[in-house]
Each structure stands twice: as C-alpha cells, then as structure tokens.
Specification:
Elements lengths: L8 H15 L11 E9 L2 E12 L2 E9 L11 E10 L2 E10 L2 E12 L2 E8 L2 E9 L1
Antiparallel strand pairs: 1-2, 1-8, 2-3, 3-4, 4-5, 5-6, 6-7, 7-8
C-alpha cells in the first residue's frame, strides 16, 4: 500500500471550513412569536397588564392586545388595541398600538429582546418610559 501524500496546511484548513460551513446553518432558525402572551408593564408609577394575541408573518408582527383588570384603582382597562406596527429582527422584538389616557390619544410602543418564551424591554408612551416583560402562555 502506498502512503498518502501530506496535505498542505492551507488546503486542509479550506477543506475543514467548507465541511463545517456546509453543515451549519448560516442563520439560526427563527422563533415564531405567534400565540398568546401575558405582558406586565410599569411606566413610571403606572402598572398594567395586557393579554396579547400575536401573529408573526416573516419579520412582521401583528395582532391585538387587550387590557387586563388589575387591583390598581388608578388603572381603568381601555379595551383592545390592534397593533399598528410590529417587527421581529433576530431576537429583537418591537410593536406599537394606539390608545388613550384621559381622552388623550397616543401611541404606546414596546421594544425588547426575546429569550426563550420571554420578551423583556422598554415600554414607551410620549414623555414617559418604563419596562415590560411578556411571557408566552
């Protein structure tokens, strides 16, 4: 039997790269956010909860969020809010809807990071910021 000729180092490195690159997906499988989510938020001293039914199509996020009654006497549920904007880019999630407070309309927006079945991030209303956590139900 004839011994194999040594493989030059650059050719070996290239062969290994091609082998590894060919077996690993360049983009991790995206998580579909479609489903029910319970969102808890606090913007300054105002705490509230939402039940959100999200629908993801590609990198777009739609759906509806409904206020949940709490034990806070200051919180009066406003009803349901259809998302007016929403995107998913990797583990970054953002969405917004129109609502009102004391008859003043405004856009509430949320931007966070997905980790498993939890999204955590910042909740924003005009002139006010806070935090939120959404958990898949």
């Amino acid at each position: 039997m004839k011994p194999l000729a040594p493989v030059p180092a650059p050719a070996l490195v290239l062969a290994l790269f091609v082998l590894v690159a060919g077996t690993a997906s360049p983009v991790a499988a995206a998580t579909d956010l479609t489903g029910s989510w319970r969102l808890s938020a606090k913007v300054e001293t105002f705490a509230f909860m939402l039940n959100c039914k999200l629908v993801q199509t590609g990198d777009r996020l739609g759906g509806i969020c409904t206020d949940v009654a709490t034990n806070d006497a200051q919180h009066k549920p406003q009803g349901s809010h259809a998302l007016t904007a929403g995107t998913v880019q990797g583990d970054r999630v953002s969405f917004a809807y129109r609502t009102h407070f004391l008859l003043i309309p405004f856009t509430a927006s949320y931007a966070g990071v997905l980790a498993g079945d939890t999204i955590t991030g910042e909740a924003v209303a005009p002139g006010h910021k806070g935090s939120f956590t959404a958990v898949r139900e």
